[in-house]
Amino acid sequence: MKAADIHFGRIERRQMRRVQNIFFVGIGGVGMSAIAEVLINLGYQISGSDQKASAISEKLAAQGAKIFYGHHADNVEGAHVVVTSSAIAKDNPEVLCARELGIPVIRRAEMLAEIMRFRFGIAIAGTHGKTTTTSLTASILTDAGLDPTFIIGGVLTAAGSNARLGEGQYLVAEADESDTSFWLLQPMISIVTNIDADHLENYEHSYEVLKAGFVRFLHNLPFYGLAVLCIDDPGVRAILSEVARPMRTYGISKDADVRALNVRQEGMQMRFDVIDDASNTTFPVTLNMPGKHNVLNALAAIIVGEELGLDREAIISGLAAFRGVGRRFTHHGRLKHARGEADIFEDYGHHPNEIKAVLAAAQEGFAGRRIVPVFQPHRFTRTRDLLDDFAEVLSECEVLVLTDVYSAGEAPIAGADTKALSRAIRAHGRVEPIVIADKNDITAYLREHLLQDEDVVIFLGAGDIGRLAKEIVAEEA
Questions:
Q1: Domain boundaries, position 430
Q2: Can 249 be counted among the known catalytic residues?
Q3: Domain count of the fold of the chain
Q4: What residue stretches are annotated with the Mur ligase N-terminal catalytic domain (predicted)?
């Protein structure tokens, strides 16, 4: 039985029993805000708190949410349920007050699972590529007229939002493995893009336990569901024999069920041919995103489209029309400086493999031009656990700017700061990192001392480094 053959009938919008007022702790986060926006459009009363105002929180306020700035116990007054995430401290006053008052406190993924309950869920998991793959899948379904609901960890450029409530039966959402909360989801189709050693603190500091966690996620599928797996990734390939669900694999590898051939980058576009073993057909695809990693992301979305019975031309058209997602190789504009001009990009890449893929795409897309990464490490634990991998990847740069670690609420760890990373990079003997501890000093240094004509600057990291990319270009306006 194909998952696409299931008849769900009319989408139910019935309210959760006794729950109407929902409070989000950290509502300005990209994942939390996406769920909040969908719930607003479902008719729930939404409130929430965050440390400071942002474009995201202001957008939610304009849609009717009540936003508090600062975390205070009395903010949760009147809430029927409080939604939190792993980024929120256990001693947060709103969480403590809710527990004292007997208000249910649930994780973000639990609320996502509730939204998914009455829909055909398509969940995308993996260490990297979740946001882009989710966005590509949502775009294909939207362009095909299926009007999906989507919940994404980044802003879909075409929609101008990270979330939308659709009238169709499909829900496309990211599944977050970082805190094991993806185990709460019950999708019909699950994608795993890759499995790298990250967030091991939640998996007994064991890569084997992490891989087992992904198998558990896939086994949340019903027996007639579908696992869509990237066979090019060693971690995913290692679990294939353990997955007891129908599956389709994708990749560039010859043994993939759906594979890409003749992959080539032309500027900021990828062109490739897709061979589908099931139908024994080949067809060309153009993708307006650079990098072989995005070819893999597109293959996953293609499989979903085919599984749902979409016309192949609709899939090809949807991929060709895809306009990208925020903070994924986003071009903010040109910067004039004393020695000429430079292109300014931003990318969310914060894991060594992500950074490697982004830099490779930049080098191929801008052959002959100097690539200038400005990297802000994200979390002390990640910097500690992956220090050697970061050093290996970043030591290949011609020039490199580092700034202080974005803590994401973590306490500093000895030997896991930017100075330690700089020493590890320097030990490879290929590049001398330029360390600018205060990120607010980076713009002036780039303008006055570092940049050459036609440099390509990429602000890298999952913290707040991206705002510099916007600001440095905005100053030109």
A1: 330-474
A2: no
A3: 3
A4: 22-118
